[in-house]
RNA sequence: GGCCCCGUCGUCUAGCGGCCUAGGACUCUGGCUUCUCAAGUCAGCUACGAGGGUUCGAAUCCCUUCGGGGCUACCA
């Protein structure tokens, strides 16, 4: 059975068919492909499966490339960078597939099939009724010259269909072990459409062989198409030792055990990017779906992932995607950011939310404000709301909090605070805290949470905010006091 | 229906015959800390789908069964 004992260079490809934004499942596959290539010191190939041009657009291809780059999954061969086995877009390799298809026809591995869609459907219908294995019935396998002439005169255009021999195919899946498919359940399959365009089954096998791919790590949904790929290798005259090794990755599923989809939670990586998830958090989380480094370890950097990743530790059972866990990991990764990086990554979210205009004074305040909220956010998208009070021109207390400070007692409290705050020498958080504690806690005998809550609302506009005294220091004496005064 | 894959806490997982009265993480609940929210910290809840074997011993091996998923296209 295909099992090459002789070491050959590791070459792994990620070959999506970008019919939309790359989604969580795609990326998990890409991540494992990439990690395996990097772990082994092999080559990571990025190939676009765009034989179905109606569904794959240039924008999607570009978006896929951008997403991979954003995540840090850079490729050694593929679009933009080229490579010795290009082109890497299947739409640019059509002549190659045509040549092979012609050869398969000439060598008797494949044949022209003239059956119409209606006829094939009728066959399937009959098979369903008769409760037998569905699939092509071999009608055109051995057509006479007369028969062919008759079909041609009807104007029928044939597809190229691969002939599956009797017997079975067994291969060793790196994750699932030995898998066997009886050819009774692998019907003759189409390689080339009537319009001359190649199908996935042809293109994928031809490319993997010609690009010298050594390991095919791909989704579990392709498991049952493997015998067909192997048949194409055989028709190409590839020796068993040169077949790629297969590893079929378990699915990433949505909450209710269904395949991940829009209904189940967001699947597009772009969506996560816009919501302030860090690429390293997404990769770390996705790496844990169907794989684990063992030893109760969960936190891994991209570098550690490439060091630790092995196919042996990949699971065979599907995993469910859990947004809560992603958020937790994202929070960890945000806290692990250096102040400089946190600033750099937060900035676009602040400006997009129109909280910042980008002036030098704002940036100076921001530089001091970010450290006090770094451990308070789970995503970058939460940053603007948390710091808005520092930068708004027209300050307003949020409606749900306003009622808590409009009673007489609160007004009195705010009034005392306002008066005593005048005496603060250096407007620092220490100075502010000292004065406020003395006036409100010691002298008025209030509970800290009651007293400071009122001031918090008055100054930041919300009952939830960064630490109060630091916030007031950053806001400055003038603005802090004027906000208090306006509510007395 | 047929073929194939899969089955440990709610979720992701550790476990690869004795170290398991099953460990970690997320979630949830309660406590501590505390100017709010977080963070941190302590504790708690909850799992080997079921039934048969094999074995001195099974979450780990085998069989059956049930359950979930994939494929069954001139999609990938």
Counting DSSP H or I runs of 4 or more residues, the number of helices is 20
Cα distance spanning the termini: 84 Å
Unreliable parts = 1-5
Q: How much beta, percentage-wise?
A: 5-15%
Enumerate the strands of the largest sheet in spatial order, edge to edge or round the barrel: 3-4-7
Largest sheet: 3 strands, antiparallel
Mean pLDDT: 90
* Overall outline: elongated
Number of E-type strands: 11
Radius of gyration: 32 Å
Please estimate the helix content. Answer: 40-55%
What does this structure look like?
With 488 residues, the chain is mostly helical. The protein contains 20 helices and eleven strands. The chain has helices spanning 24-40, 58-71, 94-107, 117-130, 145-153, 200-210, 226-236, 269-274, 279-287, 302-308, 323-335, 339-352, 360-373, 383-391, 399-402, 408-421, 429-443, 448-460, 468-475, 477-485; strands spanning 11-14, 43-46, 110-113, 159-162, 168-173, 177-182, 189-192, 215-219, 245-249, 252-253, 319-320. A three-stranded antiparallel β-sheet has the order 3-4-7. Strands 1-2 form a two-stranded parallel ribbon. Strand 8 (215-219), helix 7 and strand 9 (245-249) form a beta-alpha-beta unit. Helix 13 (360-373) crosses helix 14. The longest helix is centred in the first third of the chain and has 17 residues, at 24-40. The protein is elongated, with a radius of gyration of 32 Å. The protein starts with 10 loop residues before the first strand and ends with a helix. It binds one RNA strand of 76 nucleotides through helix 4, strand 6, strand 7, helix 6 and strand 11.
């Amino acid at each position: 059975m295909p099992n090459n004992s002789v070491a050959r260079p590791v070459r792994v490809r990620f070959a999506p068919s970008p019919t939309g934004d790359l989604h969580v499942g795609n990326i998990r596959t890409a991540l494992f492909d990439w990690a395996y290539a990097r772990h082994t010191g092999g080559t990571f190939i990025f190939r676009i499966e765009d034989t179905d041009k109606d569904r794959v657009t240039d924008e999607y291809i570009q978006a896929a490339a951008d997403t991979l780059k954003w995540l840090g999954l850079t490729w050694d061969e593929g679009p933009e960078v080229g490579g010795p086995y290009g082109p890497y877009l299947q739409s640019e390799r059509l002549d190659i597939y045509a040549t092979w298809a012609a050869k398969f026809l000439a060598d008797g591995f494949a044949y022209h099939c003239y059956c119409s869609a209606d006829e094939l459907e009728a066959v399937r219908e009959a098979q369903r009724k008769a409760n037998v294995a569905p699939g092509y019935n071999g009608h055109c396998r051995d057509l006479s010259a007369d028969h062919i002439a008759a079909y041609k005169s009807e104007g029928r255009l044939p597809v190229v269909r691969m002939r599956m021999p009797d017997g079975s195919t067994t291969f060793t899946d790196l994750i699932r072990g030995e898998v066997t498919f009886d050819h009774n359940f692998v019907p003759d399959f189409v390689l080339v459409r009537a319009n001359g365009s190649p199908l996935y089954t042809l293109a994928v096998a031809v490319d993997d062989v010609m690009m010298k791919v050594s390991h095919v790590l791909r989704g579990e949904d392709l498991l049952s198409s493997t015998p067909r790929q192997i048949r194409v290798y055989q028709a190409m005259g590839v020796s068993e030792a040169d077949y790629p090794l297969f590893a079929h990755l378990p699915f990433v599923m949505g909450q209710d055990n269904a395949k991940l989809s829009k209904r189940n939670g967001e699947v597009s990586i772009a969506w996560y990017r816009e919501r302030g998830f860090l690429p390293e958090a997404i990769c770390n989380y996705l790496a844990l779906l169907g794989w684990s480094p063992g030893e109760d370890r969960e936190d891994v950097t991209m570098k550690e992932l490439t060091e630790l990743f092995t196919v042996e530790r990949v699971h065979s059972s599907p995993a469910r995607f859990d947004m809560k866990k992603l958020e937790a990991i994202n929070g960890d990764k945000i806290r692990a950011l250096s102040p400089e990086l946190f600033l750099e990554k937060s900035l676009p979210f602040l400006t997009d939310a129109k909280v910042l205009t980008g002036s030098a004074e704002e940036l100076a305040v921001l530089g001091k404000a970010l450290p006090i909220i770094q451990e308070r956010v789970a995503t970058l998208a939460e940053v603007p709301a948390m710091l808005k009070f520092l930068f708004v021109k027209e300050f307003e207390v949020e409606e749900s909090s306003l009622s808590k400070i409009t009673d007489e007692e609160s007004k009195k409290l705010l009034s005392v605070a306002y008066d005593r705050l005048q005496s603060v020498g250096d407007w620092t958080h220490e100075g502010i805290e000292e004065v406020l504690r003395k006036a409100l806690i010691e002298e008025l005998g209030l509970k800290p949470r009651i007293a400071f809550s009122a001031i918090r609302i008055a100054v930041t506009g919300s009952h939830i905010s960064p630490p109060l005294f630091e916030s007031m220091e950053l806001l400055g004496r003038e603005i802090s006091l004027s906000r208090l005064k306006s509510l007395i």
